[in-house]
Design a protein that fits this description.
globular; Dihydrodipicolinate Reductase, domain 2; Rossmann fold; 2 domains; 16 strands; 11 helices; 9-stranded mixed β-sheet; about 35% helix; alpha/beta
């Protein structure tokens, strides 16, 4: 993630000119002085530190970007907002809704701009889908199917890391991958009221630091049904142990007038069906991403030239910087991060109880 943000910061003014404000890669923090200096040289920062508090409390720093394991987010965000810094925090926002609620309240109390790293929804194809829904082209949305399947934790010889522990991660594939799928759903269809889930842990133990077996207590795969506040229904799936799948993420949704389909592995395409087309030419059409889609105007002047993952981080940073300059909220705030964690907790409760569970919500954090 440090690479992704650094590439986006360096290239932002090359794509967006004039830039709302010129980003300066001032200080990068790492676990040791040696790692910090290596990262400074590699990623082009002016300074480096092995003490994150030095960066958070430095008066020259305006924005703090938190890219650490999930259980460290709360402490860093609270100290950053207390110091008056704008904050970007990667998802999941925190391992628990209690921590996420505290982070949101602190950011709002400090009056700083806060952003959760849901860059996937800022993909121009997804933003085009949002536009087609908002302007009524698809009619009333009836159902949503979302997924992210990968195989990067399929290998049971992988050692124990923080992602495989509830205390440090909050959950497994559900929070790591499913949070983006849930954000797709909330962005496009709206809040989710109730969920009913099933999860599985395929690799029960992994080798710990002392070469002894250590219990895995998070999910490798979770699926759940969803009831949206709008009346739509949905099916969402997340797995990091699906052999052969890499970043098979996306969604299909159906409305009363048409349908949309998006596949992240073909992220520069949006599939669109309009039921009002003449009978002799009905079928899904492919919209190629270009300057005509929201966000696409910053890159290349011809549709089909394509952008990649790094450019979605650029769009996220552009949204954040624009929000600071214009005095507004970005598209994905800590409120969105809190809503995703609340949804995650409801799914986990449903998996344990075997029943439908209502998703908690209030005026600050969605449902």
């Amino acid at each position: 993630m440090g690479k992704a943000y650094s590439v986006a910061l360096a290239s932002l003014p090359m794509y967006v000119w004039p830039c709302p404000a010129m980003p300066v890669r001032d200080m990068i923090a790492e676990a040791t002085p040696e790692l910090a200096e290596d990262a400074r040289t590699r990623f082009g920062y002016e300074r480096a530190t092995s003490d994150w508090r030095e960066a958070v409390n430095d008066p020259a720093i305006d924005v703090v970007v938190i890219l650490t394991p999930n259980h460290m987010h709360r402490e860093m965000a609270l100290e950053a907002t207390a110091a008056g810094k704008h904050v970007i925090c990667e998802k999941p926002l925190a391992p628990s809704s209690k921590d996420a609620t505290e982070m949101l309240a602190a950011a709002e109390r400090a009056g700083v701009v806060h952003q959760t790293g849901f860059n996937w929804r800022l993909t121009p194809a997804v933003q085009q889908a949002k536009k087609l829904i908002a302007d009524g082209t698809l009619g009333d949305i009836r159902d949503f199917r979302g997924h992210w399947l990968g195989d990067f934790a399929f290998d049971d010889s992988l050692p124990m890391i923080w992602r495989f522990k509830r205390a440090t991660a909050g959950s497994g594939a559900l929070g790591d991958l499913g949070s983006h799928v849930a954000d797709f759903a909330r962005c496009l269809v709206g809040e989710i009221d109730q969920v009913a889930g099933i999860d599985a842990t395929y690799t029960k133990t992994r080798t710990g630091a002392d070469d002894t077996p250590d219990e895995v207590d998070v999910d490798d795969s979770t699926v759940f049904l969803a009831r949206f506040a709008s009346g739509a229904h949905g099916f969402l799936e997340a797995s990091w142990a699906t052999p052969g799948r890499k970043s098979f993420a996306g969604f299909e949704l159906h409305g009363s007038k048409g349908s949309l389909s998006f596949d992240w592995e073909r992220m520069n395409e949006l599939r669109f069906y309009d039921s009002r087309d003449p009978a002799d030419r009905q079928g899904f059409r492919t919209i190629l991403v270009g300057p005509g889609q929201p966000g696409g105007e910053h890159f290349w002047p011809v549709a089909g030239y394509q952008i990649g993952y790094a450019e979605t981080k650029l769009l996220q940073l552009l949204d954040l910087i624009g929000a600071i300059v214009e005095g507004r909220a970005p598209q994905t705030t800590f409120s969105d991060g809190l809503a995703a964690v609340r949804l995650e907790e409801a799914v986990i409760e449903s998996c344990r109880s075997g029943t439908w569970v209502s998703v908690a919500g209030d005026e600050t954090g969605g449902r």
